[in-house]
Each structure stands twice: as C-alpha cells, then as structure tokens.
Amino acid sequence: MSAMWLLAYHILSGLAEAFNVIGQIEFYYSELPKSMSSVASSLAGAGMSAASLVSSLILSIVEDATKRGGKESWVSRNINRGHYDRYFCLLSGLSLLNFAYFLSCCKACGPLKEKAIRCALQ
Questions:
Q1: What pLDDT digit, counting tens, does each position of 76-103 carry?
Q2: Which domain of life is it from (predicted)?
C-alpha cells in the first residue's frame, strides 16, 4: 500500500480545519460583544486543543479495540499490515455524524441578525 492514498484525506482535512477556524472566529466576533474579542480567539484555540485530545482518544480506542490475540491493529506502524481503510471509514462516519450535528445546530441558531452582520463588517 502506498502512503499516497492518505494524501487526499490529509489535504481535505487541512482545508476543512482552516475554513472551520475562520468561520468559528467570525461567529464568535458576530455573537460576542466587541469587548470580548480576545475571548473569541481563546475559544477557537481551546476548541482546537479539545479536538486534538479527542483525536488522540479515538486513536487509542481504535488501537486497543482492534488489537485482538496479538494481531496487528488497524493503525499499525507497518502500513502494509494495518487496515487504514477501515480506520478512515470510521473517521468518515464520525465526520458525517459531526456534519449532521452541525446542521442541526445551524437550524436551531438560525440566521444572524442584520445588526450583528454590520458590526462584524466594520
């Protein structure tokens, strides 16, 4: 198996993270008062830190759950012995669940107020 199979995932993941941070900071700036703009930047950083911890937790759970009877786990150090296809399918499923949660939050929050949009643009 070639490591080039992982290239598309990492490119899409990097783009998604970049756009997520921009959107998240813009959301905080539009919803929080101007006096709390530094809190908005801190919340974005705290969110990325929490995401890194959850990512490590998912990796540890998958490695422990798929290592049975001394066999190689899905995320083996040897790329030819591991089952990275299954691991990335699991991550894709979790991403779809996350997207569904995002859509439900967007529907619950509703569109931004016109006043908040004008304040963010100034």
A1: 888 788 888 888 889 889 988 988 998 8
A2: Eukaryota
Q: What's the pTM?
A: 0.70
Exposure pattern of 69-102 as b/e (b: 16+ CB <10 Å)?
eeeebbbbeeeeebebeebbeebeeeeeeeeeee
Return the percentage of the chain with pLDDT > 90, whole number: 13
Query: Which two tokens mark 3?
Result: 């490591």
Residue 120: pLDDT over 80: no
- Cα–Cα distance between 43 and 121 in angstroms, integer? 20
For residue 44, give the nearest of 58, 23, 30 by alpha carbon.
23
Whether the CA torsion 64, 70, 72, 77 is positive or negative: it is: positive
